[in-house]
Amino acid sequence: MDKIVSLSKRRGFVFQSSEIYGGLNGCWDYGPLGVELLRNIKDQWWQAMTYREDIEGIDASILMHPRVWEASGHVANFTDPMVDCKQCKHRFRPELVPRVIQCTNCNKYRVKIIPEVNDALLNAISMYGVDDVIKAFAADEMYCPNPNCEKQTDFKIIETICPDCGTKNSFSPPRKFNLMFKTFVGPVEDEGSVVYLRPETAQGIYVNFLNVQAASRQKLPFGIAQIGKAFRNEINTKNFLFRTREFEQMEMQFFVKPGSDVEWFNYWKEERMKWFVNLGLPREKIQFHQHEPDKLAHYAKDAFDVEYQFPFGWGEIEGIHNRTDYDLSKHEEFSGKSMKYFDEETKERFTPYIIETSAGASRSFMAFLVDAYREEDAPTADGKAEMRVVLKLHPRLAPIKVAVFPLVNRDGMPEIARKIEALVRPHFRVFYDDSGAVGRRYRRQDEAGTPYCVTVDSQTLQDNTVTVRDRDTMQQERIVIDEIVRYTAGKLAQ
Ligand code: ATP
After folding, report:
1. Pairing with 281, which of 27, 42, 207, 459 sits 20 to 30 Å away (CA)?
2. pLDDT at 411
3. Average pLDDT for 42-52
4. pLDDT tens digits for 232-250?
């Protein structure tokens, strides 16, 4: 992860927000390459969703009527139980608090630790002579470290330890903490002017369901897609872009007739998996995780997460939920306005079920970036090998599609290269580079994930051909200048 964070800053993918002031926790800024990658992810999603006849787009406002969040259950339920360390005053989710536990069978100790191991923590556990520390991103199966006692899973908690200051048994009882950011509309900051920064984009779709349906004359089943910012006052904002306080969601809510919901749920589950795989995530590094019936959200009939295997473990990048008629019924109840759909053919009036696909644009960004990062041996001009960092992003996601180089800065090569740049620029994001040895220029583009580098050399002066070097294979082929745009378009369409 450290390498990805450092490359992100060095090459302008992601910067810490307000860095010159020491940063703002849980917020990140996308730099010149990052913003292109993020836009490309969103464009691919938007195309997959709305370039079909049964889905319409929408862009709802971030601030909504506060009753929306009462109806959705966010005011009452969008809470995390939190514990406070009385010593250092830091706040944690209870399941992230390290615990010394003891096997009730053989009395061996072990420590269940989720965050990083630091000196304060090691110091606190040293008296137990514990050498067996479990590091896990999420709650983990427990088994006894003693080989003669294997499979023993009965433990008692000896003590809890603050992961930041190492103080033992210093936690307050769990308290509920609402994750929504609250603010005020107008000049008076009182309870009557409270509004929330939306914690999900979905509600903007639900409240507009009938508006969109009437305006577009869609019939069930149909969907509404939206990409937009969401805000959650997350407590634990670790792991770079994985859990941030401001992030972007790509959500599509598909409205169906009750009874056809299971079929559509399965359809969208498969579609969403295909989307990630088609954009380059290896199938073996993504999995479905079904929510256990007792862990399902109160509104959901069934739910699967699409998870990616991040360097720190499996993490959700998208949720696919069968939300039943919960949301529309709640808005009907709270607003007093009918949210029912009238079926012209059967003359029935009913509340549709909703199948939700809710992907994080920023979490997907991180998955695509992490997955693309490679360190490889590459041959140098004098036949030796050197390490290259290359981002093997799917060409459609790559921030820059084509780089153009004159081999040397003379003999008319820069002029031809500039003409090629002008030829390509209306079609694709292109980058012109004439500084340093051509091998260095290739390396710089490898790090940026640029799939095709076009070089003007002495042969170009003879026959109007250039070399096109493929980022992944490092093979070069010669094509005529007039073919460059068509060649690139063909590759991107694959
Ligand atoms: P988690 O359990 O990881 O908090 P969630 O189940 O609350 O996620 P949803 O409410 O289903 O997430 O949101 C849908 C998607 O929005 C997630 O799959 C994720 O990609 C993205 N997302 C949610 N919270 C965050 C966050 N704090 N930072 C970045 N992306 C997020």
Report:
1. 27
2. 92
3. 97
4. 998 777 789 999 999 999 9
Map residue 446 onto helix, strand or coil. Answer: helix
H or E element that contains 476? strand 476-480
| Distance from Cα 25 to the centre of ligand 1, integer Å | 17
pLDDT at 450 over 60: yes
**DSSP type of residue 51:** S
Write the Ramachandran bin of 166: left for phi over 0, alpha for psi from -120 to 50, otherwise beta: left
For the question of whether the overall pTM of this predicted structure is more than 0.90, the answer is no
- Using alpha carbons, select from 331, 340, 351 the residue that is nearest to residue 67: 331
Dist. CA 232 → ligand 1 center (Å): 9
Q: What is the four-CA torsion angle of 10, 12, 16, 17, rounded to 10 degrees?
A: 150
Cβ-proximal residues to 25 (8 Å cutoff; 6+ apart), any chain? 237, 245
> What letters, b where the CB count within 10 A reaches 16 and e where it falls short, cover 19-42?
eeeeeeebebebbebbebbbebbb
Is the peptide bond between 221 and the residue preceding it cis, with omega within 30 degrees of 0? yes
How does the average pLDDT of the chain come out, rounded?
91
Say if ligand 1 is within 6 A of residue 213 CB: no
Mean pLDDT computed over 313-335: 96
CA distance 223 to 245: 27
Residue 137 has pLDDT above 60, yes or no: no
Q: Which of 51-60, 187-196, 327-336 has the lowest mean pLDDT?
A: 187-196
Distance between CA atoms of residues 206 and 332, nearest Å: 10
Given a cut of 50, is residue 138 above it in pLDDT?
no
Q: Is the CB of 362 under 6 A from ligand 1?
A: yes
- The closest of 69, 417, 14, 463 to 241, measured between CA atoms, is 14
Contact 324, 300 (CB under 8 A): yes
* Parallel/antiparallel/unpaired status of strands 91-92 and 79-84: antiparallel
Helix (H) / strand (E) containing 311 = none
Q: What is the pLDDT of residue 133?
A: 62
CA of 305 to the centre of ligand 1 (A): 10
- CB-ligand 1 contact for 42 (6 Å cutoff): no
Ligand 1 pocket, mutate which of 77, 358, 366, 370 (most atoms under 8 A from CB) = 358
Please return the burial class of 439, using the count of CB atoms within 10 Å of its CB with bins 0-12, 13-18 and 19+: middle
Residues 368-395: tens digit of each pLDDT: 999 999 999 888 777 788 899 999 999 9
Residue pair 181/197 in contact by the 8 Å Cβ criterion:
yes
